Amino acid sequence: MVDVLVxxxxxxxxxxxxxxxxxxxxxxLLEASPREWRGGNSQHTRNLRCMxxxxxDVLVDxxxxxxxxxxxxxxxxxxxxxxxxxxxxxxxxRCRPWMRKHGVRFQPSLSGALHTxxxxxxxxxxxxxxxxxxxxxxEALGVRIRYEAPVQRLELREGRFVAAFVGDERIEARACVLxxxxxxxxxxxxxxxxxxxARGEHPADNFLIRGTRFNTGVLLxxxxxxxxxxxxxxxxxxxxxxxxxxxxxxxGICTRIDCVSLGVVVNRDAERFYDxxxxxxxxxxxxxxxxxAQQPGQIAWSIIDAKAVGRFMPPVFPGTQAGTLGELARGxxxxxxxxxxxxxxxxxxxxxxxxxxxxxDDCRTVGLAPAKxxxxxxxxTPPFYGYALRPGVTFTYLGLKVDARASVHFGGRPSSNLxxxxxxxxxxxxxxxxxxxxxxxxxxxxxRIAGTEAARxxxxxxxxxxxxxx
Length: 470
What we know:
It contains twelve helices and 21 strands. By secondary structure, it is an alpha+beta fold.
């Protein structure tokens, strides 16, 4: 029998496996994907949001706890557990030396990378390099790893973990960490959660999945059915407006369109529907997927002119380009008269002084609904560009309720040997909204906690309950 079983193969799972092994436990990690697709959504990440009180190697200035907390509070609208959120924030200031010890390397924020030089430490080589570094370190430490080993169900006894099942194979362990991701790749569950809108559409049918195809939520569903306490809304997710031409799965970072705050966004009716300049892009980029999901046909278009070029990370695929607004409308398949009217009304409403995309400037609209509150400049300099947008789901927020020990709860009581980390519990901190890099902060903090607690639980003698239920 192994001491600690870790179910999952992304950042949170790997942090748990490494911490448990460092604590002296024998560890088996079960990854659902083949080896070449290992790492879950973590392979598509780029950075970690880090609290720091002074400049640190790749991080400039300071990003203190209270500012981090206020940023999180703003994007979640208060839908967060403050104690657990602050635990994550403080942990983010202490984890990087440990990450380096396991082979992760950092680099400064790239120019145009969402203005994150002060708040986010970027992984050299991206998330794939981080995942590979952790797997190499885990193997060197003696963690056993099995690929193509999806867990469908657990054997539990009165809230205590006994065994996991991979098909008909029963795997026992003294303690277990669940880190198998959300349900974003389960189309049926997404359709059930989102239902049918007032237009008779199934919005989820038009969602693209930015991350792994292996996060189908089978284990999460099993835990809910087994009576584990849950938290979060199944329709809430890290959902970004991405290039409508992106693949159905695993498009990752490169599918994102980052010019929204530099222009306007219109829907299928060629109408604006939200303030594109509400706040800095790292704090607001993840609301746009949900906004697009609420539009007719779950599609929208980001519109810019030549003045915006060079001020954002360019998309992988070129947008539709035109010499006039009318020509652009025709190229996008939008009603030409309505589109031109929308842009001209916006142009006429633009007011303000000096444009500054690095600050909340005073370039705004007046007398326009919805307003654009910052970075509002007329779209009047050809060539003009349009990028079609679809909702891109990164991960879902419905998950298992936890405490500061990362324990799974049943009826309000924490399990003595079953823990959870990563997307399966991120809803405790992220009730809604997102800010760049916080998902990796949550996964790293709770992965490390879960691994430590699982190793401790494996060493603690337990009384065997009488009644069993699989």
